[in-house]
Amino acid sequence: MNSTQDKQQSEESRDGREVSVVVSGCEKDDARTVFDVLRAAFVTDRASVDVPQDVTGKRPTAWVVTVDVTEARVVSGPVRLGAPVTADVQGGYWAVDRLRQSLAGAFAVRVVGTVSGDQEEEVRLRLENKQAERSAGPGS
User: CB of 41 within 8 A of CB of 72?
Assistant: First the structure.
């Protein structure tokens, strides 16, 4: 095998476990909350001190992180958002599903759009606060 083939195989295996996440349409604190959950669940390319910042001007702001879903850690439970957050995730089918399942430990996750490709998919997620579970006891 030559170095070109080695590089191609390395990129293919990396692509199978990495998911690109773009968070937009929210306040920077909510973006940080989403990134904190992702960092707690997986290895990401953002250090904990690399926090979302406001950008001056009238352009929409989007924050991006790359997540390696190979080794998932347990997310401790629901966290609070100030408002719903849109997250566009792109990667291999297995990796995107694993990321979505992990986010469901912290947020109510709803798929609001998908674009499927041969080996990858792009999914738009809406992340919201989980509602408190109510038990339906007698007389309810």
Answer: yes
